[in-house]
Amino acid sequence: MAIAERPMQPQSGGVEPAGPPRRRSWWARPAVHTALLGAVIGYLAGHSLGLLVAGGYLHVKQGDTNDMALVLGYLFATLGWLAGLGVFNDLFRQIAGRPSRPAELEETSGLARYFRYSLDHKVIGIQYLVGMVGYFCTAGLFAMAIRTELLSPTTHVFGPGTYIEIVGEHGTMMMMLMSSVILGPFGNYLVPLMIGSKRTAFPRLSALSFWLTPVAFIVLLSAILWGGFPTGWTGYAPLSNQALQGMDSYLVAFSLMGLSMILAGINISRRSSAIARPGCVGVGCRSSYGRCWRRLF
Questions:
Q1: How far is 250 from 242, CA to CA, in rounded Å?
Q2: Which among 64, 106, 135, 246 would be 20 to 30 A from 70, CA to CA?
Q3: Greater confidence, 264 or 58?
Q4: DSSP letter at 183?
């Protein structure tokens, strides 16, 4: 005997039950393409503000260099990059009294999640690994340029100034960007698994620590456009005082990478110390824990 199914009645007050939230189209969701657009808009806004503020200074008129415009352009570009990724979306939602982004809306499969601001520690670890490989290969190209110049003592491929720029770029990339080659990929991916945790202590800080590294990489590369920096990776005076605007790129990139390392150190050290149970922490987790504290100090 067939049983007739009764249609679902609306809730009290005649209001239909709310369905699952709809996802926006891929081009409307925050990702790398919106971050690049935000970075360009931010740089133009910051550079224009710097020209407006410091354009009338005497040393700017005499030297034809405006360090304030360049630094403000980099800072606003960083904010635009992060805003384009959606880093501030949940913050603005909470300020407006709206709920945060539902966890089920975050993509759990496909390549698209690796180009977004993901809170999954495994995705962040793979993002770190791919990013570090890219930075390493770029630094390797500069190393090949150095070896090419040293092939012959009489025939020169680059001029003296260009050679110094190449040496500085190579050394800074290897010492600054590659400092996260172990803690970034393997610390984010493996440490939560080794201590039995589903995520890191502060997932947003973990994601932010990675997405600051591409900005530092691009800012460091842009130093070539402004004459480079003759200090090598150390940045010591008096050569730093004689450098052109390329030194501003070096300082901004170093600051961004330093902030990234501090955030990563706080995140992983906090999770390791708060969640780890006696007997479940191996040598790899302990070494990552010690490396985090070395970064912080």
A1: 14
A2: 135
A3: 264
A4: I
